[in-house]
């Protein structure tokens, strides 16, 4: 797959990261097809696994799937309940996992999947337990799936809080720095154009 | 809490690991109260979070909660479906997470929780994607919860395949060695009697 122009399915195209991914991947000559719940070329909610089959059907053949989509609840640990853990699982794990599994029949033989996880898998913060749980699940899944889907590949990108989001979320990440979304997008390029699999890129 | 005799709630007491935990913890002078779905002093299925409140109510005050309970489906990646991922989440993640959260009101102020994860979080094998997902979720949760529950503590134990189970499961773990359940039980002792928190003990 390497550096040739690819058709890339971009899930979560409307967010901070999704926009950066669109710019970066387009600038590198790839054809980006945008997917979102409420915007984009293809309107699908991947947290409903039954919609993923319809998404792939509508999209046709693609070389790479990149996901920038995932939501989890944030609250103090004692205030979580069973439905919150389920929401984290459904909002960030299940859809991404099914993107890979259902995508095996639709992505090019040497194509790739790149999923989103995040710093909270390894750097705990107060209110971040559900995010950690979801991120840990995605990262371990990526390592596991990689050995079964070759020559297709799967990696995850684990960003710190975005520099663009520091105004809103910075207080939750004291002394932890930040990363510009454009730099996170470069890690997706590494996954899409490179040859690695089963990796988690932390930045 | 250190080395004094503790009252320990043992979830999943009837399995290979549960029996080893019972022997090891009892030999060290602790009072072990056994919990199981179909056997043990207290009959509760922790995969139903609503039963966990009843379990803690019935158990009364405890110093430590140790979990050896968790089931996940095993199959080739392409054969998994949404219900399988949900089963892995419910079978190994949700109950253990809620044991900690709901246990905060019942476990001694310097008490501990020790959860079970497993080698597949970091060492992928074919058919192990759901196990990996669940283990990764539990490990990241433990790191996250630790910073919110102090002075209570939480750790995870991540064992290789049990030596006692090699006859049945050995073919899935080629060249990966094994660990006797008695040695895994020692890691639980380290968690229960020690001072560490947020750790994952791999063995």
From TrEMBL, chains A, B:
Coiled coil: none annotated. Gene3D superfamilies: NAD(P)-binding Rossmann-like Domain. It comes from the Bacteria. Pfam families: adh_short_C2 (PF13561). Keywords: Oxidoreductase. Belongs to the short-chain dehydrogenases/reductases (SDR) family. This is Short chain dehydrogenase.
